[in-house]
Amino acid sequence: xxxxxxxxxxGFSYEYxxxxxxxxxxxxxxxxxLFDFFTHYKEKxxxxxxxxxxxxxxxxxxDIALFALFTDEFNPEIINSLxxxxxxxxCFFDDPWRTKFVNYWKQYFTFxxxxxxxxYQKYLSNGYKNVFFTPFGFNKNIYKKIDTxxxxxxxxxxxxxxxxxxxxxxxxSNEIDVKVFGRGWNNNKSWxxxxxxxxxxxxxxxxxxxxxxxxxYLPFLIWxxxxxxxxxxxxxxxxxxxxxxxxxxxxNGCGGFQLSFNIPGLEIAFEIEKEIxxxxxxxxxxERINYYLKxxxxxxxxxxxxxxxxxxxxxxxxxxxxxxxxxxxxx
Length: 331
Prior knowledge:
- By secondary structure, the chain is of the alpha/beta class.
- It has two domains: 4-137 and 316-327, no CATH class; 152-313, Glycogen Phosphorylase B (Rossmann fold, 3-Layer(aba) Sandwich), CATH 3.40.50.
- Helices cover 46% and strands 11% of the residues.
- Helix 1 packs across helix 15 and helix 2 (37-44) crosses helix 3.
- The longest helix is centred in the C-terminal third of the chain and has 18 residues, at 296-313.
- It is globular, with a radius of gyration of 21 Å.
């Protein structure tokens, strides 16, 4: 999709910024064709969009066709037939918790990729040989380190969830003020633009990366029962498994100091306590925030180490170049 959730007013989609644009950087814009399937889907319907896709790939005969799915816009028979024309790859982003969706679709592609190392190991152990480990990374032309003043002690960028709401309220009750940005907070229905996000990350002494998975921590569950809306939101929450997200790479790619919930697999991307700081519980989070606010030199050293590691290993440009070269057999 070119636009976020297919809506131009929401700006470019994650896939556009972090798949299409980096591919253009690596291989040249003339070598990369964007098929904005969701715009076709909305304007012409499912059948016509799929026929147009098949015709486009038949005519262009690309070396590789890279897919980022949404829901059920594609026709599985047509997707399966494309393997006779080119090598097809589907990039899954949420396979740790969207397992039914992934298990259905991966059979129709030549290759598939996961950003989650635990899932990658699981696929390999289950006998899949057509899977690649492709972390999210960050678009180095969007997420950058800039010279600016730190105007926020602590910030959080991300959508509302009951667990995040509870966490922020617990921090506030312990005299820790967090500047929150994202859809769903206090009737705020808009995201930051990419440029605004980069500014906030660079302007924050501490960038929080809070869990968004369903929690069974008893104090949180007791708090949730106070509000019908919170209980409803919690019951509707689909994400129940933690995973390393794009934001982990984006914050460090901007040179920001990051304090993240300690997620399995994070230690593969960054060296814990040297390139990224982590917390394990709400009490530990409070303790860590107070510690790093008092220790500027250590905080800034971790931020710089994480930034240098990101430039070296974690750009979306590098990850996609590696993926394409593996698919077409250059590696």
